[in-house]
Specification:
Number of helices: 3
Oligomer: single chain
Distance between the termini: 37 Å
Helix content: over 70%
Mean pLDDT: 90
Largest sheet: none
Radius of gyration: 13 Å
């Protein structure tokens, strides 16, 4: 088994990535475990940096 420190998301569909973000938000809200919300926020920040769009536009693109 190969050891890795980073994982790429290049093969994840928009639909699946949106579902992951929504699951992190839902879990964070319903368990009060802040780490889930923090992870969702970090993923969104990285995606907005990569795509050079704001969060609202990113979420709109992912939902289309």
């Amino acid at each position: 088994m190969e050891d890795f420190n980073m994982i790429t998301i290049e093969n994840i569909s928009k639909k699946d990535l949106l579902m992951i973000l929504q699951a992190l938000e839902y879990t964070g809200e319903h368990t009060s475990i802040q780490a889930f919300v923090d992870l969702k926020d970090e993923l969104i920040q990285q995606l907005t940096d990569l795509s050079e769009v704001n969060e609202d536009d990113l979420m709109t693109m992912m939902q289309s």
